[in-house]
Amino acid sequence: MSETMSNQEYNQFVFDHVVDHEGRNTVVNCPMCGESANRNDYECCKSGSVNQHYTLDCPHCSHHECDRDGCLLCEMWDSEENEYDDTSWKLDAVVEFLIDTIEDKGFCPTLEWCALKSMVHANPNAYLMYRDSYIGMDQRKCVVSNQALIEYWKQQLLNARFAYRLNKRIEQAKRSETLTMTSQH
Predict the structure, then answer these.
(1) 43: Cβ–Cβ under 8 A, 6 or more apart, which residues?
(2) How far apart are CA 67 and CA 94, in angstroms?
(3) Contact present, 182 and 145 (Cβ < 8 Å)
(4) CA distance 47 to 35
(5) What pLDDT, on the 0 to 100 scale, is given for residue 82?
(6) CB–CB of 73/115 below 8 Å?
(7) pTM, full prediction
(8) Taking a C-beta distance cutoff of 8 angstroms, is the pair 36, 29 a contact?
(9) Among residues 23, 16, 105, 121, which one has the least CA distance to residue 68?
(10) Of 121, 123, 101, nearest in space to 112 by CA
(11) Rounded CA gap, 50 and 21, in Å?
């Protein structure tokens, strides 16, 4: 007996049983520092076809490379000819990207947030650029470590999320008020 699948069932079957989302993790030498780096070869389904991709992340020097389209981290690493291309600039760029994304779309891209924390942990002096920054409203609590730096950024991201949600509620209230006024006339 032959069963027929709908397009949706077929697509779900391929997605669940054919595409290797988790991939294969291997340890390779980092092309930047020569230390052990993690490489993940995996598949994803885009535009109706199964595509093979890879990521390479070094926990020692924070080097990252992959072949995904539009990867913010790869774009930053590729800008090495820039005279201002140091770890501080990269960290700032990722934080700015995260805040902009939250302000525009209301969510924080998880991959970039995790990559940012990884870059901080790989650079023991990352916090030095922010040592004059205060955490929250407490003027006595400065950024004195990488963990404090991550907390400082987390507070900035939460503030951006709060502002996004507040603006959405204000817009909703204005629309509701306009509808109420229109229906009364």
Answers:
(1) 19, 20, 21, 23, 50, 51, 52, 53
(2) 19
(3) no
(4) 36
(5) 41
(6) yes
(7) 0.49
(8) yes
(9) 23
(10) 101
(11) 10
Number of residues written out for the chain: 185
Tell me the pLDDT tens digit for each residue of 92-147.
888 889 998 898 888 888 888 998 998 888 887 777 777 666 555 555 566 778 88
Residue 52: count of CB within 10 angstroms of its CB: 11
Tokens of 45: 């389904």
Report the alpha-carbon distance of residue 37 to residue 59 in Å, rounded: 7
d(CA 164, CA 172) in angstroms, rounded, equals: 12
Structure tokens at 111: 């991959």
Task: Give DSSP secondary structure letters for 14-48.
Answer: HHHHT--SS-EEEEEE-TTT-SEEEEEEEEEEETT
Q: What are the structural domains of the chain? A: 1-69 (2.20.25), 82-185 (no CATH)
From the list 26, 46, 45, the residue with the least C-alpha distance to 36 is 26
**What order do you get walking across the sheet with 36-46 strand by strand?**
24-29, 36-46, 49-57, 64-66
Instruction: Burial-class residue 41 by CB neighbours within 10 Å (0-12, 13-18, 19+).
Output: middle
